Amino acid sequence: MMLLLFIPIGITVNLAEKIGKILENEAPLNEVMMYYLDFTIYFAHLLFPLFLFLSVIWFTSKLANNTEVIAFLSSGVSFSRFLRPYMIGATIIGLIALLLGMYFAPWASQGFNEFDYKYFKKGQKAVQDRNVYRQINDNDFIYVSSFNAERKQGQDFTLEHFEDHIMTYKISAKNIRYVEEDSTYRLIDYVNRRLGKTNDTIEISKRKDTIFSFDLEDLTPVEYIAETLSYNELASFIEKEKKRGSADIGRYELVQYRKWSLPISVFILTIIAVAVSSIKRRGGMGVNLAFGICIAMVFVFFDKIFGVMATQSDFSPLIAVWFPNILFGILAAYLLYNAKR
Length: 341
Known about the structure:
With about 350 residues, this protein is α+β, with helices and mostly antiparallel strands.
């Protein structure tokens, strides 16, 4: 019910902000409708644990205010038995969150971001297309001064091959383009310089078609690529990027670890919500909701702060993702212990 209430409110607020650009860019109605479907899935997945948290606080506070919790416990039901239905519900919702994160949210994220860059961020680029320098395997490094993803074409291309940290040959070309018809690369003003112990050999050609073990399109992935991949695809992508020496590994691993940490946070927030709201308070439900919103804000704050640290520095993505869960897990254990007493 909380999600159903949020969806129209979220769509209305976003539409009020974006309607000018939608009309200005003449976005087709079917694309706009698909965008808001993706928008709903994308943000519902991110906010799933928090909506559950507030829902549990609201529901349990109603029970407590009606003296139902006291009646439960006074009849001989243990607090652990009282907590069991909540944990069953959290398990079901955790599995849904896991399924969303693994498969449906990546699909929605791709459509959401593509529409965003197409109509709302016109002129902004989702890929690095200037001075691209990448390690493509253990021995080869490539460079292009500029790159066009649509044409699969790069300018001022060089490939340097090393063996035992010593360069053995260097290929350069004024232009490189991927030819899809025969799956080759066409090099213009091709130069291949092979370095020998006593002398070098140079091969020059006006145009040369050859094969390389990389895809130009893969060398400059879009900024949001990790969010658009299912778990297995993301794991393979990260392995490939590690071999290439990508500087964005922290960002990719952050997305990968969050696919597991988000369902776990469902259980932690459920326990906190039950422990906090199962006690009848003088201020009633308002006090419990205020306390719950504060905890939710602190949780989101820690999640964002550590996420930024992982993407912008050498801070471990694993610690960044799991630290809020560990911290709030300790808080959940403490609150549960006091609630049982």
